[in-house]
Amino acid sequence: MATICFEGIRNIRDLGGIKTADGHVIKDKCLYKSATLYTATESDVEKLINDCNVAMVIDLRTEIERKMMPNPCMKGVSEIWNPIYMEHIQGLEITDLDSVKNRIKRNEFDAKAFMLNMYSKVVNNQIIQKQMKQFFHMISNERGGAILWHCSAGKDRTGIMTALVLAALGVSKEEIIKNYVESAETSDDLVDVIVDKMFPLGNEALEPFRKQARILFGGDSCYIDVFFDAIEKDYVTVENYLQKALEVRIDNIVRLKTLYLK
Asked: Do residues 119 and 225 touch, judged by C-beta distance below 8 A?
């Protein structure tokens, strides 16, 4: 999975080149994941359309996030809003930095425990499952051009959906976790911006809060491990989860492999 250089877009990666367990490879310039497109420059937009061949953008963010950080208009590119969760499901309005700051400053708040719980609870939430089903329907019915999906940082919602797509295409769990970690590492500079905005450097009293904020917005392999553990606990395999919970049937998986593997 290659990181691509853009002027304003962070954590954008082409899934092309990732190998499946049976020796196939994901085609280049077909599937992309990224952080928000709100920061895209005009040059970035041209690159997405002309160089990356993006024809569809799937926005996984909440309504509040979209209003605060709207995507740029991209001529000829269809944009579909498919929020993976709403604020009331998540229990933390991540776009409202003031509310996040207040939560972090609570004495009992444990950012890592919160994230582990979130990754675990995502698996069996029926509203989230419905959104995931729609996501797979969209990517399995794309007729031409590449697809890009994104959230805000390109780490949690985007990371989870990327993990499931890779699993559907036959990529090993070990390779999926490796790519999740690599992707999370590329969002570190974006995390720095968020943390500095919430708790500015220079005040030692804010350091414990900065640490919690970095855990909250950063990436850790244990998060995606917990996600897979929750799936395997109730469904034994990711393949069973895809078929039983998300209704991604064998014929859908065959079509996905036909579209995106070589």
From this structure: no
How far is Cα 134 from Cα 140, in angstroms, rounded to an integer?
A: 10
Q: Which of 170, 172, 189 is nearest to 35 (CA)?
A: 189
Nearest to 123 by CA among 160, 149, 156, 154: 160
Cβ 81 vs Cβ 56: under 8 Å = no
Q: Are 186 and 195 contacting, i.e. CB atoms less than 8 angstroms apart?
A: no
- For residue range 170-215, list pLDDT tens digits in order: 999 999 999 999 887 777 777 888 888 889 988 898 999 999 999 9
Residue 1 has pLDDT above 80, yes or no: no
- CA gap 156, 68 in Å, rounded: 19
Length of the chain in residues, anyone?
262
Nearest residue to 29 (alpha-carbon basis) of 8, 50, 58, 46? 50
Q: What is the pLDDT of residues 130-150, one digit of tens each?
A: 999 999 999 998 778 999 999
Whether the predicted pLDDT of 15 surpasses 90: yes
All residues at 6 or more sequence positions from 82 whose CB lies less than 8 Å from its CB, including other chains: 58, 59, 60, 131, 134, 135, 138
Tokens of 260: 């995106």
Q: CA angle, corner 220, sides to 218 and 225, nearest 5?
A: 140
DSSP annotation of 32 reads E
